[in-house]
Design brief:
The protein is an alpha/beta fold. It is built from 13 helices and 7 strands. The chain has 3 domains: 167 residues, Alpha-Beta Complex (Conserved hypothetical protein from pyrococcus furiosus pfu- 392566-001, ParB domain); 50 residues, Arc Repressor Mutant, subunit A; 52 residues, no CATH class. The strands form 2 sheets. The protein has a 5-stranded mixed sheet with strand order 1-5-3-4-2, with helices on both faces. Strands 6-7 form a two-stranded antiparallel ribbon. The two termini are 21 Å apart.
Length: 294
């Protein structure tokens, strides 16, 4: 597949199928270039998209939006397609937050855009809308990307083209799915940032380190130092990142991000060594496959 093909398909499709993506500060107020609705539809004829990557909705934010809708109405339409097997029903493609708030506000009808798209395009659009609006937490975003890879055989390069992100962003987001469920939950609820979480991917005890990060309010740099460990200084304590060569530390980070393994580079006067630490047979097999097939 041409690497530019997905970008062309969705570059055209997003504007044509959804219209204006970036909402105003108050979503119930019409943006300057609000797409024209195809009409109004009974709100109880719409069902949410079970494939929507967004799983968590802040109820306080929904209530705030509902209150605004009670005053101003809903101008930004929801985007729907016809529901399979139900000629009277419609399935959301984009706008579930607006739909939920409209129901809470007591609306019986909402403006809508009707689009004829397949399952693949519907999933792409749902992910893109949420990502561009920063509505997904990193774990939801990763599961959305993984669904496109598993079901529609996207490469990471193709996926990056579809969503308008860099390949490294896609790769780093997917790597977060390797974290233990407990750590993923801490990332989803905001106790950990994505930067903190990335430092835990190759840590030996990610759950314990995650808890320490939260309890002590550690910075990402402090978390990296704990996750990677380090050589000892003259007093027998681990050297801090500031005591080590910045170029070596940066190279370790790049190598760890590329391989997904804990990495330690130890220069010496006559060369040095590179240590890669794997946690299970799968990680070793992946490493060997990359080395022998490169």
């Amino acid at each position: 597949m041409n690497e530019d093909a997905p970008r062309k398909r969705l570059g055209r499709g997003l504007a044509a199928l959804i219209g204006e993506i970036d909402p105003p500060a108050n979503e119930s107020q019409a943006p300057k270039a609000a797409p024209s609705a195809d009409g109004r539809i009974a709100i109880d004829r719409i069902v949410p998209n079970s494939r929507n990557p967004r799983r968590h909705f802040n109820e306080d934010e929904i209530e705030d939006l509902a209150q605004s809708i009670r005053v101003h109405g809903l101008v930004q339409p929801v985007v729907v397609r016809r529901q399979a097997g139900n000629p009277e029903g419609f399935e959301l493609i984009a706008g579930e937050r607006r739909w939920r708030a409209s129901r809470k506000a007591g609306l019986t009808e909402v403006p809508y855009l009707l689009r004829d798209v397949d399952d693949r395009t519907a999933l792409e659009l749902a992910i893109i809308e949420n990502v561009q609006r920063a509505d997904l937490d990193p774990i939801e975003e990763g599961h959305g990307y993984q669904a496109l890879i598993d079901e529609y055989e996207y490469s990471q390069n193709e996926l990056a083209g579809v969503i308008g992100k860099s390949r490294s962003h896609v790769a780093n987001t997917l790597r977060l799915l390797r974290l233990p469920q407990e750590v993923q939950a801490m990332l989803s609820d905001g106790r950990l940032s994505a930067g903190h979480a990335r430092t835990l991917i190759t840590a030996e005890e990610p759950e314990a380190l995650a808890q320490r990060i939260v309890e002590q309010g550690l910075t990402v740099r402090q978390a990296e130092a704990l996750a990677q460990g380090g050589p000892k200084n003259d007093s027998g304590h681990e050297k801090s990142r500031a005591e080590r060569d910045e170029a070596v530390v940066a190279l370790e980070e790049r190598l760890a991000a590329s391989l997904g393994l804990k990495t330690r580079i130890s220069p010496s006067k006559k060369g040095g060594e590179v240590r890669l630490k794997y946690r299970n047979q799968d990680e070793l097999d992946q490493l060997l496959s990359r080395l022998f097939n490169s």
